[in-house]
Amino acid sequence: MKSIRFRTRLLLSFWLILIPALCLPAYYIYRTLENDIYKEATANAFTQLEFIHWLLNERPAFDNEQALDKWCEDLGAQLHYRITIIAAGGRVIADSDVNYPNINLLDNHSDREEIIGARKFGQASSIRYSFTIGRNLIYAAKNINTPNAPSGVLRVAIPLSSVETRLAYFGHRFWLILFIMFILTTLLGFFLTRKLEAPILEIIQTATAIGEGKYEKRLDMDAGSEFARLSECINAMTRKIQQDIRMITEQKQELEAVFGGMQEGVMLLDQEGKIKATNDALTWIAKCMPSCVGHRPMEVFLNPEIQEACNQVLMGKDMIKRKIALNNEIVYEVNVVKIPDGGAVVVFHDISELVRLEKVRQDFVANVSHELRTPLTSIKGYAETLLNEKFRTSDQADSFVTTIIKNADQMSNIVNDLLELTKLQQQQRKAVRLSTVNAALCFSSAWETVMPMSNEKGISLDNRLPDSVWVTADEHSLIQVFRNLLDNAIRHSPTDTKITVFAEITQAAATFGVQDEGTGIPLQHQKRIFERFYRVDNERSRASGGTGLGLSICRNAIFGMGGKIWVKSPPDDQLKGSVFYFSLNRAVDFLT
Amino acid sequence: MERHFIKTLDDLKMTLLNMAALTQRAIEKATQAYLNRDEGLAQAVIEGDREVNNLELKVDQIALKLLALEQPMARDLRFILGTTKISNELERIADQAVNIAERTLFLCQHPPLDHIPAMDRLIEVVKSMLDTAITSFVEENTQKAIKLRQMDDIADKYTLEVLQVLIANMVQSTPATEKRIVNARRSVQTIIISRCLERAGDLATNIGEHVAFIVEAINIKHQKVDFDQS
Residue A240 burial by CB count (10 A; 0-12/13-18/19+): exposed, middle or buried? Predict the structure, then answer.
């Protein structure tokens, strides 16, 4: 499209130069020529006039006007032009082209230009169109002063046709030349533009390809051409762009790697508050698959506080820090920071572990003091009573002392358990010495220790363990785990129920389950029951005599042996009760 | 003009999402309060309801303004109508949360009932229904909207289960009159809570239907839907 327009422009400019260059001189030459021809024709007319005048002078006088006219007719037939003699009054007295009888029919010629001129100056000429003959004529007139003829004016009229033919010929030639020049310039323009177009098209193609991202494309042109420098420039430019893009891509990849590797969720907001980019961690936090780009934080997190913080930063605040809980339990420290181009960066830092630890620590301190104070209060109360003389000898004294001892035992149990727990946690750090242990035997010895309690409540055991289950464990710890789980099961079961123990054995691991028919554990407590002193229901479980450390010890012991422990309440296909599972690595079954 | 329209439409969506977030939080808090017997949290739910109500008014106001001034067409029109309906449902869900909180306040005055596992499951299902409903709106996902009906059936099943457990509990409770009355009271209140949750689930299902209306201009209300599609 553009190349055509360029071609037209070139052609037009050719023509614009050509027309004045040809026409002006042509016009000038035409004028001069025309002038010269007319001058020459006039001079010729005068010569003829002089000649006729001489003839008139030389011959004898005419008898009458008819003889004069006859002479004129003869002369005119010889010379091929019109000869007229006009009397002083303007009346034509002789004319070569008109017969004598008709001569009186001619107009009075006194108003003719050449006649007036001749009367005034002796001789004159004029070029006019003659209606009588029907063509352009040159008239030349002269006063005659001879005795041979009546005085008046002699006039000759020579046709201009020869002059005009010459001029017309010149004019035709001129138009032909102009036409040829037009064709030539058109062809030349076409050829030139074609010559120009080819490299331009090539440059256009290459530039388009570069624009589309094919940066490896290069222009290859003859060094001699005018476009060589342009093509060099384009190649240099492309090389630079390619380099820059490679550098930018590398930087972007590095940045993406950094972003992708970050634990913190990061998202970028544009000026309108829509998400422009995120890292993988954020995708996990927001659970927006496959992408949250193009949405607002509100749509992604459904959290008014985050949206509010983002809005404030977009409105002009520099930075906002908020502690926000998402998905119910995960607490994030959310930092919203303004960036110079008007958007914002939002960083999500998971601090729920910190928050949880803080809470566990606070609970632990509160709980441990509470656990120790309860028996201590009781001991102190009874001891003070015993100080009183009156009671010291009474029958109640024995029961008081028994209570004191019971409470002291409880306290010592707690302290023992705490020590045990601390030991386990230290062991965990060191790596426990594990050996191959028969879990079934460990269970039996644990059951023996809790048998008195179970008998008391009429609880029966359904032991579905195989005779030997070889696992990698520490024997003492495993017995303790079983004992604690059984202890819990018995304490939380109503009387006359059943405790079931079973194992699911796979290639690599053995999973043990201890199931009771007790009250069960509400869902929201299930995650925390393995914490120290965490109690589902304070009154009830303390009344049942636990230290609040049993499950915590179990967890630490199982962790130390490389296993896992978890709870399901109620068990599958049951409405009541709970089942505690723990898994241990299986030992090589070399005995069977 | 066009730009202004789009901005206002966006504003409408943001307000509705704000409302959805607060409603979801209200249900979350109310059920937490019930499970943990947390009076303070229950009180917070009751106080927080006013904000949801205000947002409902704001949604209606923006929607009316858009309808009156912009003559929206096709999808925009459905979106505006849909948001007013959804905001209505959300407001009622928030009211159910307040109901639960009020029952919880009563229950906190009495000793706890035995743990009812079906109730835990009911709460989980209803919460995930509400979550699904809101996500279906955000993602404009009709499949999720249709899925809500299946979840509703599950919620109904658990509600029935809770009812059975509590009736059995009332029938079997101790003969002493005083305790029996207390037991009946807390059981009935708990049954009401389960009803509220079931209602909230129904309303979430309605939201899904409105989403289907907005996105695909189809009405899946009161119709059997072939679940195999999903």
Answer: exposed
Residues 6+ apart with CB under 8 A from A342: A270, A271, A314
Res. A251: pLDDT tops 90: yes
Give the containing element (helix H, strand E) for A165.
helix A161-211
Query: Which residue of chain A is at minimal alpha-carbon distance from B131?
Result: A302
pLDDT in tens, A137-160: 888 888 877 776 677 788 888 877
Name residue A344's beta-bridge partners.
Answer: A269, A338
A547: tokens are 């230290």
Q: From the CA of A535, how many Å to the nearest CA of chain B? A: 12
B210, B89 contact by CB (below 8 A): yes
Beta bridge partners of A565: A582
Reported as a single tens digit per residue, the pLDDT across B127-144 is 899 988 888 888 888 888
Instruction: State whether B120 and A521 contact (CB < 8 Å).
Output: no
Whether pTM exceeds 0.95: no
Adjacency order of strands within the sheet including A135-144: A92-95, A82-87, A152-159, A135-144, A123-130
Query: For residue A81, how many other CB atoms are within 10 A of its CB?
Result: 18
Neighbouring residues of A249: CB distance < 8 A, sequence distance ≥ 6: none
Which DSSP string do the residues of A115-156 spell out, in sequence order? HHHHHHHSEEEEEEEETTTTEEEEEEEEEE--TTS-SEEEEE
What residue segments make up the domains of chain B, in order of their start?
A: 2-229
What pLDDT sits at residue A1?
A: 46
Name residue, tokens 């002699």: A154
What element of type H or E holds A477? helix A475-492
Q: What's the pLDDT score for residue A528?
A: 79
CATH superfamily of A262-350: PAS domain (3.30.450.20)
Q: Is A522 on the interface with B (CB under 8 A)?
A: yes
Above 0.85 for ipTM, yes or no? no
Q: How far is it, in rounded angstroms, from Cα A312 to Cα A319?
A: 9
Q: Do A302 and B134 count as a contact with CB atoms less than 8 A apart?
A: yes
Determine the distance in angstroms separating the CA of B67 from the nearest CA of chain A, rounded to an integer.
Answer: 24
Q: Apex CA A171: angle with CA A170 and CA A176, to 5°?
A: 100
Topology (CATH level 3) of domain B2-229: Methane Monooxygenase Hydroxylase; Chain G, domain 1 (1.20.58)
